[in-house]
Amino acid sequence: MGLFDFFSSPDAKRKEEVRSGAVVPDRSERKRCWDARDSFYQCLDKHNVIDSTKGAGKATADKECAKENKQFGEDCATAWVKYFKQYRVADYQKKQTLERLKKEGANKMAIEAGAEKK
């Protein structure tokens, strides 16, 4: 008897396999995940929460966005949930740094990627 034998329907089994990372989500499952993520982010934005993983932000998110967070966790692979929560913080920090540099008068530099010249 395996872990997934406890689920009553093939849909529930598939959903758990996606959440655990045992199978790759298909297009509709990815869309459902992104929609759940966006809904969770909207709730966090509404309550001015950037980091929902620790401190006061976690407490507020747990209280005010519990429904959205639960749906996010159900519709996305566990690793994706962790990644998206960390990405939100990193993206905010990047934007804050760029804004600070802009206010300080830093010049924007064009960077080109390509092969090294010899």
TrEMBL record:
UniProt xrefs under Pfam families: COX6B (PF02297)
Source taxon at top rank: Eukaryota
One GO cellular component, as annotated: nucleus
Cited InterPro entries: COA6_fun (IPR048281), COX6B-like (IPR048280), CX6/COA6-like_sf (IPR036549)
Gene3D superfamilies: Cytochrome c oxidase, subunit VIb
Family of the protein in this entry: Belongs to the cytochrome c oxidase subunit 6B family.
Name under which the protein is recorded: Oxidoreductase-like protein
Originating organism: Truncatella angustata
